[in-house]
Amino acid sequence: MGTLLMAAGCKTGNTGNTASTMAGAPMPAATAPPGTSEPAAAAALAMLAAEYWEKRLQADPIEATIDGDRRYDDRMPDESPAAFAAETARLQALRARVAGVAAGALAAGDRVTQALLLGQIDDDLSYGICHLDEWSVDPRSGPQVSYLRLAELQPVTTVAQGQALVARWRAMGPTIDQKIANLRRALAAGKVTTRDEVQRTLQQLDAMLAEPDGAWVLRGPAAVSHADWPRPAQTSFVADIDQAITTVLRPAFGRYRDVIQNEILPRARDQAHVGLTNVPGGDDCYRRLIKVHTSLELTPDEIHRFGLEEVARIRAETERV
């Protein structure tokens, strides 16, 4: 979705002088000729779409790397409460600016871009309100899985890329500590994941921590030879990765594992309370996520009833066959 918005935003309408549009001035309300956009409105929308995408990548540098944007390879996301609050405020302000672009000044294609951008921002805000990542312990995409994938997703061919990778490996430790603080904060508020999720995550962490440093997936880039690098750069790259694993990553993953084992597991939800509605604020979050995933204003009961009706219909068709 973000890529679509970026592409649509950068190509929207006609170009023109946009100095005043980015200063918070209201967009002209005049109706554009059929099939065209007012130049100022179109340019402002394009810049807002580009701003959304750029700020998104800055807030989630891992997503940038996965998308092939290597500018932020040396960073990890800031998962502190202060960063979360700042990002929420930024998205709310950006939404107001996007909504302030007069739809009557936009051609049909640009109105679609505006609607998509507003919808994406609303989705981001809904995820933020739910704040699932604050209390989730996830065996599918937790740090013991997603961080390890970076060894493959962040290829190194130049000295600069190697230095960026080392910086990111070192930054993983503080980010894991932020995750630990978030888990504890959520636990104090009664928000905790399920026992099955915790136990599977612990199995992964135990298997990871049982391996010697040299066998860690995150050491993989150090095993690749770079014949075109100066010898001191190659030597330093390998030594820095080894040091990051020994002094930063292993201790951080160990702390993460201990908190999950000793603090989260004893209070994890049992099989009878696996649903999101068993988490404080879960009812509201569930409704918001229905809109995010279906784009429809449906209640949980309506979704459930639809599911039962579909199962009944499929069984009836199967019986006829």
How would you portray this structure in words?
This protein has 11 helices and no strands. The longest helix has 34 residues, at 231-264. The model is unreliable at 1-30 (pLDDT under 50). Helix 1 packs antiparallel against helix 2 and helix 1 (2-11) runs antiparallel to helix 5. By secondary structure, the chain is mainly alpha-helical.
Estimated share of beta-strand residues: under 5%
Order of helices and strands: HHHHHHHHHHH
Number of helices: 11
Global Rg:
24 Å
User: What is the number of E strands?
Assistant: 0
Helix content: 55-70%
Low-confidence stretches: 1-30
Mean pLDDT: 90
Mind summarizing the main beta sheet?
Answer: none
Please state the overall shape, judged from the principal axes of the Cα atoms.
globular
What is the CA–CA distance across the termini? 40 Å
**How does the helix and strand content classify structurally?**
mainly alpha
Keywords:
321 residues, single chain, 64% helix, mainly alpha
List the helices and strands and how they pair.
Layout: H1 2-11, H2 39-59, H3 61-66, H4 81-99, H5 108-130, H6 143-153, H7 159-188, H8 195-210, H9 231-264, H10 282-294, H11 300-320
